[in-house]
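QUALITY CONTROL LOG
STEP: pairwise intake check
CHECKER ROLE: data steward
CRITERIA: each record must contain a sequence immediately followed by its structure tokens, with no blank fields

ENTRY 1 OF 2
RESULT FIELD BELOW
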Amino acid sequence: MYRQLRTTFSEAAELYDRMRPGYPRAVFEELAEFGRLGPGSRVLEIGCGTGQATLPLAQRGYRVTAVELGAELAAIARRKLASFPGVEVVVSAFEDWPAPWSEAERGSTPWSEAERGPLPHDKFDAVVSATAFHWLDPAVRVARSAAVLRPSGTLAIIGTEHIAGGDTAFFTEAQACYERWDPSTPPGLRLQNASEIPRDSAELDQSGLFERVVFHRYEWTETYSASAYRDLLLTYSGHRALESDRREHLLACITELIEGRYGGSITKRYLTELRLAHRASPAGSRP
């Protein structure tokens, strides 16, 4: 199912570029410090979208290879980053770039196997994935990320969560719209506080391919008019996957709620989480 949903973003590429928020400046400052990155550092970005994270990476002077599944999203990213000769945007699924692994390689994660995959000979100083890592194939995403990194290179996974705060009452009332028009909505769903969201490093820890994970979290808010919030919702895969009549009824219900009870605008609270880890040394390479 995730393979189908992850292709929906390119259907609304211009809207995605206009409505999706960027990331706090501190994210890139922490990445630079942790990874000891500077002008000329080689960075692979997985799932660049229309360049929300690529632009600040490029502005720091990094040489960026950005891999993006959606051709329409990639076209916007190329246009936005045209003034940065050190940036290349490639249209591909990360799982197939630059060539897919064999079944034997997909099913194993030891260094002897991960290092054998058909990946670039020149290693990257950092691999960055902003709001995209969860869309990758769980069978290969960690091992394949490790395989393209130089020894002690950095994996940076950036995630964004909608959390409690802002116009809390609106989001509570909007639940009724979802329960009526989106059959997948769990009854009584509520937003969590940032403190309730666990810091999850199990996937990286269990792989044995990365050292201890370091977490950084940033909370921030964004205010949307009714029409802008409708446009934002149209960039989310779950909303786009709804049957068209249900989607239009859902969006109308939410728009009417904002205009009728919240003065035409609402404030949404976000949590941006940055997970950082150094690539572990391959077995047998330690002194």
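ENTRY 2 OF 2
RESULT FIELD BELOW
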Amino acid sequence: MKRRKFLQSSIAVTASTAATITPLIADSKHLVQKEVYEWREYEMQFGSDSGQLETYFKTALIPALNKHGVKTVGVFKEWRPSEPAKFYLLTPYSSLDSYFSINAKVKSDADYIKNSAAYNSVPASKPLYSRFNSCLIAAFDGFPAIVVPSGSRMFELRTYEGYSEDAVRRKVKMFNDGEFPIFSRAKLNPVFGGEVISGDRQPRLTYMITCPNMEERDKGWVAFLADPEWKKLVGDSQYANTISKISSAFLVPTSYSQV
């Protein structure tokens, strides 16, 4: 009877551990918590006042997120603006639990409610944006937390779509097995990245790199592709056929972006 109770208790503990929604990675000494990112893409309406959306970001949303524990919120525009304009919002959370709890706190925060009143009063006849797309990203094991760069710079957001879940799993493994040092040597400085766990165009992963300017970015990719370690990785058969589509967006931070 004691053995049966012990086994039942062990199974319950194992199930509870497996059910946790906080992504963790392990090394020989300790557990390291991986971040979760929300990435939003806003497409503005033709003729709408983008300043109203930016005012909402600056005076309502970002201060509320900062107040409740999000340290750095990134807001970006296109390097070469399209028409209608697009805005991109990056919000890092320490975990999936944190994503839910912080958003609940923000929605009920008195200052946020007051400061977002004008944004919420935009009439249906004059919407600011068509819609915004949103996805959640679980950080790579090999790059578990955002790195905020300094100085004037541009950003490249790259998205890799795979033909199957296994293809993306193998591409994620390729990143974790050795791509990050190659990025650093090529001066294509990673900012954040991971596997998209909720959103459209699944399965896919996405990551952001940064350089001082487009010229340095181009030099960096030449160096990356010429790196002996990259050639070794890309020649490994386990990483064959991992990507079916690559897309890039070139972005610059707004004046109030914290990334």
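INTAKE CHECK: passed for both entries
DESCRIPTIVE NOTE, ENTRY 2: The chain has a mean pLDDT of 89.
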